[in-house]
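Predicting holo structure, S-adenosylmethionine bound.
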Amino acid sequence: MKTDLLDILCCPTCQHDLTLLDTARPTAVVLEGALGCTGCQARYPIVRGVPRFVSHDGYVGSFSYEWNKWNRVQVDSANGSRVSEEAFAHKTGFAPADLKGKWVLDVGCGAGRFLDIASRWGARTVGIDFSFAVEAAQNNVGGRDNVDVIQADVFHLPFRREVFDVIFSLGVLHHTRDTREAFLSLPRHLKEGGAIAVWLYYYTDRLYNRATDFWRRLLRPLPNRAIYAWSSFICRVFYPLYRLPAMAHAPFSLLPRVLPVNMHADWHWRVLDTFDWYSPVYQDKDCSPTRVVEWCREGGLREAELLDFPTSVRAIKDSSGTRPLFKALPDFRDKRLVIFGAGAGGQQALDRLAAIGVSHRVVGVVDNDPAKQGQRLGGHLVTAFAELRRDSYDHVIIASLHGLPAISTQLSAAGLVKARDFVASGILEEFAPLLRLASL
Ligand SMILES: C[S@@+](CC[C@H](N)C(=O)[O-])C[C@H]1O[C@@H](n2cnc3c(N)ncnc32)[C@H](O)[C@@H]1O
Ligand SMILES: [Zn+2]
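Done. Tokens:
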């Protein structure tokens, strides 16, 4: 622990100041010792450089196992890639200038892959996690001058009010007993005008969700190494199977929805994410953009931006509520629209546009599959994206869930800007409730 952390810490129970105990002489970095509360006299040990505000890992034992087993797989500076940096930029919308020199909190830091990014971008970075993932995070990045790792529970954070310029939490709050309550515990620690970014699960495929919950309930009572053995077994058997072209068609296409397996090209990453899918105690898969923006409103956060779908939201703290609730709401009513994806997803997008009365705004349908080009969908000739002139449309709606990341990259490479120029089709369902929220 770096001693400048004391400026922002307080007792999670009574909110009084903390002082350093048991350290022979004050140094800039404390590896072993304790923090004492000047109010309730509680004592919080510092073990291997990590202040511990919880005495056990509660319901997150699966994450303690996960992040110590795969402690470096997703950490860019350990694997030489930029995958986590790109995911971070994509899910938070932050660029290095937004973080440099700022106090930044990562809620649920896991093995520290995003602490790695934020600290390399020049932020004074603090990561908290309830699980013993903090051991991995501390080993990976805790030695850096601008990083601190803390073991703490999001529901009892050991921070003073309004101390962070930026708070982010990626893939965490839906793993708590109450996603909304966890989200609402964050804004009080954010400075006025500070930014918050979250990424949360939102899966609308009921079969997929029910099957996942069934397997999770079955597996959860088992020891973590048994869930690990099962995850690596299904990866070994079903990954090659799910890659067969026949799997794209019914009835085979049902199988990956009933027994999902992560499809990452790297074996370790694939087994990690499969384990991550089946092992958590809590997994709220229903964090719709509308729900998250409602929480923003409740938490005194404004200028919400929907950065991605399923749900990435960024917002600004504005307790007085003078800023608008949305920074920009994707409004399709006055746009010329192109549907990207001429399969079942494309038809569904056309139906949803019809339901909100804007199907007449569609000016084209495109698909990367040459077999679909030349066919018709909803009266539109399906073409290749490259055949479209940029001045012939305003907005692209990506209507292929599985192709979403690749198409997103393709559109960015063509100079389109996410959210401003293109969105995923799932957002169409959210359009009416979001408009209602915006008018409140
Ligand atoms: C899927 S991992 C994500 C880790 C990291 N954000 C990443 O993307 O690599 C979810 C993390 O949330 C943490 N977590 C769950 N409940 C928590 C709580 N109540 N307080 C703090 N962290 C929690 C888990 O321990 C776990 O490390
Ligand atoms: Zn206290």
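The first strand starts at residue 18 and ends at 21.
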